[in-house]
Specification:
The chain is 15% helix and 43% strand. The protein has three helices and 13 strands, in the order ββββββββββαβαββα. It has helices at residues 134-138, 160-171, 193-207, and strands at 13-20, 25-29, 34-36, 45-53, 58-62, 66-68, 73-82, 87-96, 109-118, 121-130, 149-156, 175-180, 183-190. The relative contact order is 0.15.
């Protein structure tokens, strides 16, 4: 996918919609990181993704990182409808200021909502919301502490349970993973996108059903 805008700011709206038929497989990724720039007061950038997956099909939603800048305001939603026996690997990574450039986040707003359903049944739901004083909140030990990068990974597959221990070995102490209700959920944190990818890429490779990741993830 290509974002011709080069980045989003308040008032911009990006919508993605994908549909897979029966017995299909697709890996979906982005050309580059999504940048969320400073928003004028009272305006919000929105990014919404809708994915419908037919029976016995597999989708891997693998966008590259979203980078939030100071005073950014972003509302992101991910809605996935899986048919019976469909499988999915989903990831979203968020960078709160680029450490290599000395960027920090003090004032910003960010909300992230996931709704994943299978055969009409709600399988996974989560809401994350922070701001406007995002900097002080993110520094809390229960959130990021001294880290600036976080990734959430969700796998819906019959193989979830046997992949849990290998996933935990890759994640290490900077995150965790659990399995329940036919899904594996993992979160990883790190100092920046570079160090996060050192563990995220092997983790996605493990969970991606034996398929190679899109080349842009490994070049």
């Amino acid at each position: 996918m290509i974002n011709s805008a080069g980045g989003l700011t308040g008032g911009d709206a990006m919508q993605w919609s994908f549909a897979l038929g029966d017995h299909c497989a697709a890996q979906i990724t982005t050309q580059a990181c999504e940048k969320i720039y400073k928003a004028v007061s009272g305006t919000v950038a929105t990014v919404s993704t809708q994915i419908d997956v037919g029976p016995d099909s597999y989708v891997a939603w693998l966008p590259q990182e979203t980078i939030l800048f100071e005073k950014a305001d972003l509302k992101r939603t991910l809605n996935v409808n899986l048919a019976a026996r469909a499988r999915a690997l989903l990831v979203e990574s968020t960078i709160f200021g680029r450490r290599a450039f000395g960027e920090t986040i003090e004032t910003a707003q960010f909300s992230d909502q996931w709704r994943i359903r299978q055969d009409g049944r709600l399988l996974h739901a989560e809401n994350f919301s922070i701001g406007p004083q995002a900097g002080s909140s993110l520094k809390r030990p229960a959130l990021l502490g001294s880290y600036h990068a976080v990734a959430t990974v969700l796998l819906v597959s019959p193989d979830c349970e046997r992949l849990l221990d290998p996933a935990r070995l890759i994640i290490g102490d900077q995150g965790g993973a659990s399995v329940w209700m036919g899904k594996l959920v993992a979160r990883l944190v790190d100092f920046d996108a570079y160090h996060l990818r050192k563990r995220l890429i092997p983790l996605l490779g493990l969970l991606n059903g034996g398929e190679d990741l899109p080349r842009i993830w490994t070049t």
